[in-house]
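Changelog excerpt

This revision adds worked examples to the README so contributors can see how folded entries look when concatenated. The first example is reproduced verbatim below.
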Amino acid sequence: MNKRFAAAAAAIGGFALTLTACGGGTGAGTAGGGSASSGAAEKVTSIKLVAAEYSKENTAAFWTKFAEAYKAKTGITLEVQVVSWNDIDQQSSTMVQNNNPPDILNLNVYASYAKDDLLWSADDVLSDAVKSDLLPNFVKSGTYEGKMYGMPDLSSARALFYNKDLFAKAGIAAPPKTWDEFVTDAKKISALGDGTVGYAMPLGPEEAQAEYSIWMFNNGGDWKTDGKWSINSPQNVETLKFLKDLSVTQKVTQNNPGKTNRTDGAFALFQSGKAGMVVGFSPLAATLDKDGKVSYGTAAMPTKDGGEPSTYGVTDYLMAFKKPGNQEAVKAFYDLYYSPDQVNTFIKNEGFLPVTQSGLEVFASDTKLTTYLDTLTGAKLTPTDDPGWDRVKLAVQQSIGAAVAPDGDPQAVLDSLQKQAESGS
């Protein structure tokens, strides 16, 4: 997700197309787009969208057609720039710092921009029909200080993927419902030998916060409690110790899970048929279906004591920067995007999940999505409504993997992250 390594300025002029998943970003500087009152200025004839690339095959193609439909409907030109998730953090931050933000930005963080009063709120640019159709948990995640600024474009939810053939060989009848059952099953699969591991665990920097979150949520923990950071709570320390134990003591994971990334590490291992279980999402299912090499099932996550399972949800946002005269053009953009033939087409093409109630009804006909859809409305998200989350997330990605190394100290790692979150540095 959150990559900050590419140079920003040189690539801003065109498309940068590289496949990955939901991305990250950070707000900084000020944009000279004005305040809400600037919407009364002379109307614009064009607006710009900077969109993250979800896939080479679909993202640019969708937005190109969308721009044509937008032009036909409004007479306004929509300039489209599609940027790799590897680069969009730095490029979008540079645009804002240079006082040249796009009108619409597709990213998975927004609160730092909202804090700086750079964004239109939903009250300014969303119709009542769209507001009422959005799923409540995504409205909540997009809300900063009582107003919604992060308009969800698509979502995903995680589930436990398991290899049916390996389960059968190991004599496992059903996916685990408790952590004890999970360990027992993972041991049986690892005992099959031939390089097979019970669980592929990615705590490398690509998406460590997601892997840790879903286990944390299923032990009653969270990143924040009652509005305050609770990263080093007893439940969270217990969770991280459990994950370390899977690798160091139980030895049911691949080598070096703290340095293993999701896409080219854990997912690749599962796709090769060498992992019994992995936490995945619908795009992984699409890849597995296309390959046709692994017979797999999906299930809810096991919980520590067998209680009601939670899932980890993700949504990205289409946020709108306040710029002179662009309010009505932005409203028209959202009206068109959230029309069912647009938003659902985009989500289906990219292999993700809906963000609207009407979308849930449309996607319900796909039985392969049942595991995700059943938990989507109750999915727990990371605290993207906190302006400090992006900074905390980066620290988590860089450091939490060290806790599951043989000499790792889960308590010390989480204590350090707690201090960083509380200090704002």
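The second example, added in the same revision:
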Amino acid sequence: MTALLTSPSNATLRAFLHGLPGVDAVGLEQRAAGLSTRSIKTTAKAYALDLALRMVDLTTLEGADTPGKVRALCAKAMRPDPSDPDCPSTAAVCVYPSMVAVAHEELKGSGVHLASVATAFPAGQAPLNVKLDDTRAAVAAGADEIDMVISRGAFLAGDYLHVYEEVAAVKEACGDAHLKVILETGELATYDNIRRASWLAMMAGAHFIKTSTGKVSPAATLPTTLLMLEAVRDYRDATGTKIGVKPAGGIRTSKDAIKYLVTVNEIAGPDWLDPDWFRFGASTLLNDLLMQRHKLRTGHYSGPDYMTVD
């Protein structure tokens, strides 16, 4: 627990979280809309495309995932554009725990991180011991990052201590692996709840706070991500501890990714413009980034058929 609270209980957590400033929804959405209109020139765009590419957690989370599909995804993460040796690799590959061993074998020594969703993803409706076993199994198989989901039902019922203790327990089960805490913002109903959930996850030990599982609509939005960036900025001001942010779900184009990077720079600051502190959870974004890079290099689009289908 941070110095913000010395005795976590539902009463102390409620007092702290409900004492956070309320969110001006109109102002938040207007600020996000304003930032999304910023223009990026050619040189800066090339830098932004490579930066966004290096921030991608290339993801497959489907019931039909096979070892072959995961191996192909790992190959693409390591060498997104085999024709361009200067093309950077992605930040990570994200898979279900059952596929971690396969991905670990493919990625070892590459520098690409291996993330796994755990804790009964995506609903999170399982007993704590099951969630902890899920986490330990993924780490034992080679995951160095765990993406967990909070118990949204407990949070919405006001049982903040339950959520706090689950996050803290999962962090302990992670060992040396980093923990990304998924808020599932589309189910939290209000911006005030998103701000409270962000602070709750950070106080419980999250290394990253993440918008969504990608399985619920709406998933990532620019206003929600802006709000979470404000939270990590203010949390560092209050505690000295820096936390990352990961929007996930629905970010499909380079144009959208650049809007997020502009927002990171303006709200949290340029030191968050790093894959260690900002990620995109995506499966289709990478191909558009590659097409835009190809256009800048050659002057013409390669077309979607030039890229592998994820």
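Reviewer comment on example two: The mean pLDDT is 94. Residues 222-239 form the longest helix (18 residues).
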